[in-house]
């Protein structure tokens, strides 16, 4: 059993390397990588129930709630109860949260440059990782994951 032969090690090392680059880029706007993921989901979907963010980001409530609270404290989003069903908490971008998207548009190309992969290679890696995640979830839970809505 050699370290270099372990897929899990290469996934871990790649994840740390990539999130390290994100950390450097996101520090400039005072945001962490997990907070960035929350913002990406909101920029994509707009007003979103917390439950849908849990599914889209593949996080549990205990992990997601502090991220949302910090972003709310920073003035980037608000939590609201849905008027027609107060059991549902929705997350809404503030004007500052919406405006932040423009300031962060340089992040994806900088990450792409750091990766040094062609767009086709990036697409291949994304497809393989999606399949790997779905297979592992199916193997460990006996069910397929719910894909995030687009």
Automatic annotation (TrEMBL):
Q: Where in the cell is it found?
A: Cytoplasm
Q: Where is the HTH marR-type domain?
A: 4-134
Pfam families tied to this protein: MarR
What protein name is recorded for this chain? MarR family transcriptional regulator
Q: Supply the source organism for this entry.
A: Streptomyces dengpaensis
